Amino acid sequence: MNFDGSDYVVRFENVGLRYGLGPEVLQDVSFALAPASYHFLIGPSGAGKSSLLRLMYLAMKPSRGLISLFGRDMARTAREDLPGLRRRIGVVFQDYRLLNHLSAFDNVALPLRVAGGRERDIQKHVEELLSWVGLGDHMNASLPTLSGGQQQRVSIARAVITKPQLLLADEPTGNVDDRIALRLMHLFEELNKLGTTIVIATHNESLVKRLGHPRLRLDGGLLLGDPQSRRGRKGKGDEMLDGSRHMEAG
Amino acid sequence: MISRRTDLPLDGDVLAGFLPWLIAFMVFLAVVAAAGMFILHDATANWSAGLTHTLTVQVPPTKGEKALPAAEDPHVLDALKVLRTTGGIIRADLVPQTEVLELLEPWLGRDGAAGDLPLPYLIDAEADPDAKFDIATLRSRLTKAHPGISVDNHRDWLDRLVGLIDAVEWIARGVLLLIGLATVGTVIFTTRTGLSVHRDTIEVLHLIGAQDDYVAKQFAWRALTLGLRGGTIGLALAAPTVLGIGYLASGIETGLLPDASLGVAQWIALAFIPILAAAIATLTARITVTKTLAGML
Ligand SMILES: Nc1ncnc2c1ncn2[C@@H]1O[C@H](COP(=O)(O)OP(=O)(O)O)[C@@H](O)[C@H]1O
Ligand SMILES: [Mg+2]
Question: Are residues A58 and B200, on separate chains, in Cβ contact within 8 Å?
């Protein structure tokens, strides 16, 4: 199956990224993600996974190449339009990046408040979601009093509170045991069923194998498709589109 | 414009303790400078109104043989005649010698002036404030009557005094402007520091979809509250200072010093200075945040 270019949630074409004057940590990265697809982003440490996610959640601009999100060319997108796009993206940061001076409730409420939501609706939504992730008794707890696992659930709740169209998670299972990791994955699975496009960076091979979603494999800044479907550097990443094929390959 | 929401831990940082005192200091200086300006302004207005229309004509005493009484001195009579026939002069009177002596007493002592010292005759004249008469013509007519006659319309020294005070007033205005600029500079500096201290938090806010405005409003609210707090302290310290200067000045017995107390309207104007300072701080913080964040992704 094929998509009209504007239907991709994420599209990268020959994207390169360097930090300052350093070497390119991403080179000629091309791929596209269809709506409601679910990918694992894998590769050894230092391969560029976090960097690739940063480009997707608009924390950085590429040094070269084209990035389009929700059918919009980011190079032509005015700075004022970025907040609107970012509100459609949920991010689970590797180090959570929660605001320590705020309660669990206020952290999760933040994306709604930032978007100008009404306080009454916010109250209801946030309480529901926090209960759902098992933090109903810790709504007003200050962040530093929560355990690592609890903070992680707060960060995931913050990422999904707006029901984003694109969910990006950077090693969300990095600090938890396999049992909890699997539960978190099921949460993402549920979200995916509701139509959210998901990319999860992880080096948890057993998890990837178990869930069997297609993979984006990074190594040394190069994006390698699955060996079977890779058509060389000219193929504009189209091989990444068909989730079912990758599922088999995984 | 501003927002009370506090996603940023702005109240906890060191700047929250530092900014109000700086603004208090600025407001203190501004209130004292403005009060001084008001007092000087009132003074020049009083002096101008009181003195500009009086003339003092001085006729040198006749030398040689025993002088005639002032009222019979021919030069005095001539001078009076000239004055009374000059258009625009509404009154011209000889100042009694006893009063002249009194005027000179501080310099000559009670006895020194009594005896042989030849005293000039003084004529006190008043010009119609509405009529424009030419002091130069009057002067030349009077010197024709007697070359030693001098005319003093107080204009010269008054002009110089008013000029001086005007200059001081302009300096006070300049000081106020500098205080305003210093306040703006301070707020820019503290806001920028706050932005870099909270850079991480601001980046998170951005990444979850916050507009610059969302952040700027929080800084603006912080600047407003700190500015008002500091401004109130500054005014509270400056008011006794201004009152104290007025009290000290009222103790000096001389007609020269202006009345150093302020009117109600002037006090109200002074009370607006902390509000103005807070408004400047708020606006500056907002603009600074917006401009700084525009450079971020
Ligand atoms: N902020 C940064 N400044 C400079 N180099 C960086 C920065 N972040 C990552 N890198 C470099 O980019 C490369 C990819 O890093 P990263 O994207 O974090 O990989 P991964 O997430 O796969 O471990 C590494 O060589 C890393 O040293
Ligand atoms: Mg990483």
Answer: no
Nearest to A57 among B12, B207, B210 (CB): B207
Query: How do strand A197-201 and strand A38-42 relate by DSSP bridges?
Result: parallel
User: Would you call A58 and B201 a contact, using CB atoms and an 8 Å cutoff?
Assistant: no
Query: Total structural domains in chain B?
Result: 2
pLDDT per residue, tens digit, chain A (250 aa), is 445 556 899 999 999 999 999 999 999 999 999 999 999 999 999 999 999 999 999 999 999 999 999 999 999 999 999 999 999 999 999 999 999 999 999 999 999 999 999 999 999 999 999 998 889 999 999 999 998 888 988 999 999 999 999 999 999 877 667 777 777 888 899 999 999 999 999 888 888 888 889 999 999 999 986 443 333 333 334 444 443 333 333 2
Using CA of residue A139, residue A140, residue A143, residue A145, what is the dihedral sign?
negative
Q: Same structural domain for residues A107 and A213?
A: no
Residues A174 and A77 in one domain: yes
> Which domain, by its residues, includes A139?
99-161
**Ligand 2 center–CA A46 separation, angstroms:** 7
CA of A191 to the centre of ligand 2 (A): 23
Give B212's contacts (C-beta < 8 A, 6+ positions apart): B289, B290, B293, B294
The predicted complex's ipTM stands at 0.86
**In 3D, which of A164, A148, A159 has the Cα closest to residue A197?**
A164
The best mutation among A40, A51, A92, A95 to test binding of ligand 1, ranked by most ligand atoms within 8 Å of the C-beta, falls on A51
pTM above 0.80, yes or no: no
Question: Are residues A111 and B297, on separate chains, in Cβ contact within 8 Å?
Answer: no
Instruction: Please name the residue of chain B whose CA is at the shortest distance from the CA of residue A95.
Output: B204
Nearest to A99 among B5, B7, B214 (CB): B7
Alpha carbon nearest to ligand 1 atom 16, residue: A48
Residue B294 contacts A where some CB pair is shorter than 8 Å: yes
What domain range is B172 assigned to? 10-48+159-296
Residue B198 C-alpha, separation from nearest chain A C-alpha, in angstroms? 11
CB contact under 8 A, A114 and B207: no
CB-defined site of ligand 1, < 6 Å? A 19, 22, 25, 43, 45-51
Nearest CA to B211 among A79, A67, A88?
A79
Query: Using the beta-carbon criterion (under 8 Å), do B211 and A110 form an inter-chain contact?
Result: no
Q: Are residues A32 and A132 in the same domain?
A: no
Identify the three-state secondary structure at position A74.
helix
Q: Are A216 and A250 in contact (CB under 8 A)?
A: no
How many alpha carbons lie under 13 Å from residue A159 in its C-beta half-sphere?
31
DSSP result, B132-190: ---HHHHHHHHHHH-TT-EEE-SHHHHHHHHHHHHHHHHHHHHHHHHHHHHHHHHHHHH
CA–CA min distance A20, chain B (Å)? 15
Q: Is residue A93 part of a domain?
A: no
The reply to whether A83 and A189 lie within a common domain is yes
